[in-house]
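User: As part of a screening pipeline, I want to sanity-check one entry by hand. Below is the sequence and the SMILES for manganese (II) ion. Please return the complex as structure tokens so I can compare it with the automated output.
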Amino acid sequence: MFPRPLYGDVDWMPVIDAIRQAERIVLITHCNPDGDGIGSQMALYDALSSDSLLCHAGVAMHNRDAVPRIYSFLRHADQARMGVWTEACAAADVIIALDCGARSRLGMPDSFFEGATLINIDHHASNRRFGDINIVDARYCATGAMIFDLLIAMGYALNADTASAIYVAVMTDTASFRLASSTPAVYRMAADLVEAGAQPWPITVNVYESRSLSGLHMMTACLDTLEIHDGGLSAWVYVTDEMYRQTGADVEDTEGLIDYARSIEGVEIAVFIRSDENVPGRWKVSFRGKTFANVGILAGALGGGGHAYAAGCQLTGSFDEVRGRVQAEVSRTLSAH
Ligand SMILES: [Mn+2]
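Assistant: Here is the complex for your manual check:
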């Protein structure tokens, strides 16, 4: 028995046709990949590289950045190539970008895309529709849920590996099935994934119960920076280069720290500012909303994007300048309500 799709009105045929006609397919997700990007990629790779005759193409995975440690347990995670595209990599005729709102966020040079049909599958409302084929649908809680529907449309029967990868994608993008995006259809999909062999607790242990000790030191250092602004409506935490040096933690260890800021009673917007590990003077800013504030719009006003409850942007300048610009926009968002 095949599971029901979350949304039966999505026209997947352009994607399916392109996949069927392809000779070489490359799956790619955004820089600093998250659970949704990696889970979507592993699930689609598992399906397309199987013997199920979905496609006859050679399939590869290529991202600018490494698969984060906490997702490395997923089947095929060791198959993803990383780094900036070089001449040595054979060109693809179909590139499928997953969970990525803008082409620049793939972190690849223009030559990467030359001669290939670019398929853009994403659920960010702010998506710039940069593909030749765009399946962009903000109704979905996660790109992984879109892959679930695509695989149903392709007649692919989920196995435990595909189901686990989709489960990771959806679990991480819904804050463990707690965000408002967790509709009844999402829970039905979760049931189908578990039935197909995804194991919720072992997956949870890998993703959320495997922190490094240095990561925990980073957590205490980061929470020590906590500031409350806007009369208790906004909570701010920071990570500086100095804190990376002192704790020995890496950028993966900062995942989820913003959620502690949001968890404070009465806080409506949480802000997390960290220095960009690659570019001095650049800052990565993350936002989380709780009830009424749409942080996707807030991030958009600062040149970034995202969802109503989770979004981000990148800003250049001194720490104080960046904090000042963000504060002005946060206060504007809160006072508009
Ligand atoms: Mn996503």
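Points to compare against the pipeline: The pocket of manganese (II) ion is lined by residues 36, 99, 123, 142-143, 173 (CB under 6 Å). The chain is about 35% helix and 20% strand.
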